[in-house]
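cron nightly-structures :: item 1 of 1
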Amino acid sequence: MLDAAVRVFGKRGYRAASMDEIAELAGVSKPLVYLYLNSKEDLFSACIRREAKALVDAVRAGVRTGVAADRQLWEGLTAFFTHTAERPDGWAVLHSQARSGGDPFVSEVVAMREEIVAFVTHLIVEAAREAHDNPELADREVAGLAQALVGAAEALAGWANADASVSAKEAAATMMNFAWSGLGNLMAGERWSAR
C-alpha cells in the first residue's frame, strides 16, 4: 500500500492524489486502505516517514568510518544521489510534495532534514580537524556550511532526477567539486577526484 501511495503522491502530489487510485495500484479495496490508515493525511504522513527514514539510513550506511574525510563526504553524497535516483517518487514526496502540503507534513520533512544536517555537520567537523588538526571550530560557520551543502545537494538531486543522462556518481562529483574544492579551486581548474 505504501509503495503505491508513494508512487501516486510522488507523481500527483497530496491534493491531486486519490485514494481510489492508490487502492487500485496497490491491488486492494479503498475501505482496506482506510482500515489500515484512517485518512489520506495519515497515509501521506506514513509515506513521508518511511521515505525519510530510508533516505537517512541510506546516507548513514553509505559512509564508512575510518576513511579520510573527503572519502566520507564522497560516500555520503554518492549514497544520497543513488537513493534519490533509485526512488524518484519517494524523493518527490519528501522534497516537493510534502513541503507544499503544509503542516504536519512540513514538520516531518524538517525533522529528516535536521538529522541529515547534523550528520553532515559531523562530517565537516571531522574534515576540518583532519585538515587543520584543530578541534576548535566556529559552530556557526560549520552549521552554515552544513545547511548550504544539504540545500545544494537537495537542489542538485532535483536537477539530476529530471535529466536521465545524469548519473548519481556524476551528481555526487559535481557536489564534491562545489563543496570540497571550493569555487575558487574549481574556477582555477582544480577538481576533486574520487581517486
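cron nightly-structures :: done
DSSP finds ten helices and no strands in the chain.
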